[in-house]
Amino acid sequence: MARVPSELRRDDEVVAEFNSATTSRSWYRNLLIVAAVLFAVVSVGFVGTILWSSLPMWLHHAGTLLWGKGWNAPVGPFGGLAMITGTVETSLIALLIAIVIGLGTSIAIVFVIPRRLRNVVATLVELLAAVPSIVYGLWGLLVIAPWMQNTVNPWLNSWPFATTIFGNPGQEFGTSLLLASVVLGIMILPTFVAISREVLAVVPQDLVEASLSLGATRWQVIREVVIPTSKVGLLGATFLSLARATGETVAVALVAGGVANAQFHLLYPGTSIAAWIATQFGESQSTEIPALMALGVLLMLLNFGLSLLSRSLVNRQRRLLALV
Amino acid sequence: MEQEIMADIQSQATAATSTSSGPAAMQLRNVAVSFNGRTAVRNCTFDVGKNRVTSLIGPSGSGKTTLLRALNRLHDLTPGAKVSGEILLEGVDVYRGDITATELRARVGMVFQRPNPFPTMSIYDNVISGLRFNGIKKKSLLDAAAESSLRSAALWESVENRLKVPASNLSGGEQQRLCIARALAMDPEVLLMDEPTSALDPIATLRIEELMTTLKSRVSVVIVTHNMQQAARISDDCAFLLMGEDRTGELIEFDTTEKIFNNPDDSRTLDYTLGRFG
Question: Is A225 found in the same domain as A282?
Fold first, then answer.
């Protein structure tokens, strides 16, 4: 085949050339096919076995799993409400913390701090995102927990409706759902900043210049052009961070308290789906395993949903900018 | 053939030029722009005539766009950029005088190479975005400004009934006219245009060119263009820039379009307009 500059060739020509090159070395092609098939088998097997081993729970106790309050190992019933609410509460509060601090941080990185410092700060943020969660958990337990107990909790208890939101003062412990939320928030903050920084940074410079040329102040450019233009991508960053928060295990297991109490008081100990599975599995008996597997399925579906959602949002952002 | 085309361009240049040189909208006095100590363009001294079209012509790298962006202080965004000399708007030095960059840009509008309407805003919101930035909230005022600037940009008839649709629904040429309307809504004294037709097809280009000659009554225009025929057709005055041996652009000659194209003082100007280089 004649050598044509690749940008001039159509995709099917490239594919045809690739195919003809690989058939001449068919062992290589077969190796690729085997790898792909193996991957498909492993994925299907993974999802299939998890579904299969949780099947008894779904068939006979689905209602208990979703709404039941007590978890009575090893005989049951196995109620998942405490884990589900714990996951939702801690993830949403963590997300709130991450958005408030994170959006400010990424705006500062992209628009405020000098260019030379920008890459340094961005790299530091990405390093923080790579810190193993056990380290965050340990830090939360040793540093944040005493601080919250001595300083934050008494202050929170002085709020109006404190007992409704946080529970009776005096019944709280060092570990709580709120502590788990704070630690989770700090953990997902680097993830949120890393993604939202990139979303903000790809807003085309000529939109910024166009708004400045209309007499906009820098703050107006950010508020009325940059953020609306990147809204969809920022939402994508939000859902990816949420997915990270819901799946987080070790840190929550350390700081949430590990109590399967279905309640909404934030200063009481609680647990999350992931943390509960991790702490229960070691000594679980065959009666309990379907219930834990079913919790795993729930978490998996939740994260599938969040990932699909954030991916479609990020793609929508890309299409929006392609129009510019 | 070449001579015929040249004769054509020259006659267009003669027709486009109005000879009287009246008051100046902006005055450039020995303007130079440098980045991190390296001069990109220098020696620029000329007047942007009031209600005239001034084109900046010259080969790539001669500093036309760099000079244009100095006029509304867009280089303020670039660390290490420095503008020296004087740029006067109504006698006020836009860099050192009693005027902020934001105030200046509200009076000196800009249209860019690529049409760049705000993608999340409707046609209407795009047009009035500048007024909103400057704190105007009264609906009757915004409506009136939107209609009058869309009319000035020859876009009103085709968008009158779909003002609320996203600006991205418009064609490239319409988007560029929307950007012109957006700049006009601020009622600027000067409109800077950076190769505004380079991303457009010939018909859309023609419409923008027609537009520019009618806009003169409302605003003074400075346009950067690579297209000699465009410069000859639409501009009253021409500034010819060229990159020297030291790779720094400088102003070679400034005069009426007629003189630049027919009878320039500098032989390099003639060579360039004749298409002998660049």
Answer: yes
Q: Kindly state the tokens that stand for B3.
A: 């001579």
Residues of B with CB under 8 A from a CB of A: 72, 74, 77, 79, 101-103, 105-106, 109-110, 112, 114, 116, 118-121, 129-130, 132-134, 168, 179, 182-183, 186
Q: Which of B235, B240, B236 is nearest to B196 (CA)?
A: B235
What would the pLDDT profile of B189-215 be if each residue is shown by its tens digit? 999 999 999 988 898 899 889 988 889
Q: CB–CB of A320 and B134 under 8 A?
A: no
Instruction: Decide: residue B86, CB within 10 A, 0-12 exposed, 13-18 middle, 19+ buried.
Output: middle
pLDDT in tens, B142-196: 999 999 999 999 899 999 999 999 998 999 999 999 999 999 999 999 999 999 9
* Residue A276 forms part of a structural domain: yes
Inside any domain, residue A208:
yes
Q: Which one, of A17, A21, A19, A185, lies nearest residue A92 by Cα?
A: A185
A143 & A40 share domain: no
pTM of the model: 0.80
Q: How far apart are CA B96 and CA B85, in angstroms?
A: 10
DSSP category for residue A176: -
Return the CATH class of domain B2-17+24-273: alpha beta
A34 & A142 share domain: no
Give domain limits for chain B: 2-17+24-273
Residues A18, A132 within the same domain: no
Does A31 share its domain with A103? no
Range list of H helices, chain A: 11-23, 26-67, 81-107, 115-129, 133-139, 145-147, 153-156, 162-166, 177-201, 205-213, 218-220, 227-229, 231-247, 250-255, 273-281, 289-323
SS3 B251: strand
Pairing of strands B237-243, B249-256: antiparallel
Give the count of domains, chain A. 2
Is A286 inside a domain boundary?
Answer: yes
* ipTM rounded to 2 decimals: 0.88
Cβ–Cβ gap B134/A215 under 8 Å: yes
What phi and psi values does residue A53 have, to the nearest 5 degrees? -75, -15
Are A111 and A202 part of one and the same domain?
Answer: yes
Does A207 lie at the interface with B, CB-CB under 8 angstroms? yes
Tell me if A214 and B129 make a contact (CB, 8 A cut-off): yes
In a domain, A1, yes or no: no
Query: Does one domain contain both A232 and A127?
Result: yes
Please state, in angstroms and rounded to a whole number, the distance separating the CA atoms of residues B119 and A320: 7
Q: B88: which strand partners?
A: B27, B93
> Do A132 and A54 sit in the same domain of this protein?
no
State the burial class of residue A129 (Cβ atoms within 10 Å of its Cβ: 0-12, 13-18, 19+): middle
Q: How far apart are CA B42 and CA B30, in angstroms?
A: 7
Nearest chain B Cα distance for residue A11, angstroms: 27
